[in-house]
């Protein structure tokens, strides 16, 4: 079972009436853990404040409200865990290695002992009230951004002659994105790293056969 190991935000001693000082990054990570484990709706302000070691007035003063805190924690999550793997995916010159390496990294991230299991974008943002339009749209944009990342890299592979020109890029990008989101659900079910990596290995098999250059 994956459990968070990062400490909650550090508080410092303060004089009477002075606001509590805290490390914003650590506070966000603590809030992230609560949202990740419980989801947006069930996570209460009281639980968030306890994890972040601040009081409600400080939360509202620093982050606006619960929705704003969630959105900031969501982007903190993306930056902390996925920015570097995405850069490596886009920089890898071979599309087959790029997909294989990215999904192997994803399997490690989704079952990292430093975090709750699964992807926050997939798991923490489910069952959100329709009234939370900003959150719903932000989560949708993040999912679409990942799908676009796959599509952009596939089009580059076509341009470079690595995969056929008639490859259905939108469908293949959608399939890769669906596999990535599915791995998150599987991670939450308590799979071993080896099992998740075995599932991830199918990502490369979704790609069309490598184009071979015939020499006359």
TrEMBL record:
Entry keywords, A to Z: DNA-binding, Transcription, Transcription regulation
Source organism of the structure: Taurinivorans muris
InterPro entries, alphabetized: Homeodomain-like_sf, HTH_TetR, Tet_transcr_reg_TetR-rel_C_sf, TetR_C
Feature: DNA-binding region: 44-63
PROSITE patterns in UniProt: HTH_TETR_2
PANTHER family (alphabetical): HTH-TYPE TRANSCRIPTIONAL REGULATOR YJDC (PTHR47506:SF1), TRANSCRIPTIONAL REGULATORY PROTEIN (PTHR47506)
Name used for this protein in its record: TetR/AcrR family transcriptional regulator
Disordered as annotated region, ranges: 1-21
Keyword Transcription regulation set for record: yes
Top-level division of the source organism's lineage: Bacteria
Domain spans labelled HTH tetR-type: 21-81
């Amino acid at each position: 079972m994956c459990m968070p190991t990062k400490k909650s935000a550090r508080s410092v001693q303060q004089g009477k009436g002075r606001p509590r000082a805290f490390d914003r990054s650590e506070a966000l990570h603590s809030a992230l853990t609560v949202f990740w484990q419980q989801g947006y709706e069930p996570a209460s302000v009281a639980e968030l404040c306890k994890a972040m070691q601040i009081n409600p007035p400080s939360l509202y003063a620093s982050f606006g409200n619960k929705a704003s805190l969630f959105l900031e924690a969501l982007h903190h999550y993306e930056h902390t865990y996925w920015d570097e793997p995405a850069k490596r995916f886009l920089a890898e010159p071979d599309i087959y290695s790029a997909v294989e390496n990215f999904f192997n990294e994803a399997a490690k991230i989704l079952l990292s002992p430093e975090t709750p299991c699964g992807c926050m974008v997939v798991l923490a943002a489910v069952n959100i009230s329709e009234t939370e339009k900003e959150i719903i749209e932000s989560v949708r944009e993040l999912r679409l951004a990942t799908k676009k990342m796959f599509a952009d890299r596939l089009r580059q592979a076509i341009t470079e002659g690595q995969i056929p020109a008639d490859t259905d890029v939108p469908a293949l990008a959608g399939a890769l994105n669906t596999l990535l989101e599915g791995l998150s659900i599987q991670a939450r079910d308590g799979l071993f790293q080896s099992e998740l990596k075995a599932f991830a290995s199918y990502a490369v098999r979704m790609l069309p056969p490598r184009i071979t250059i015939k020499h006359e």
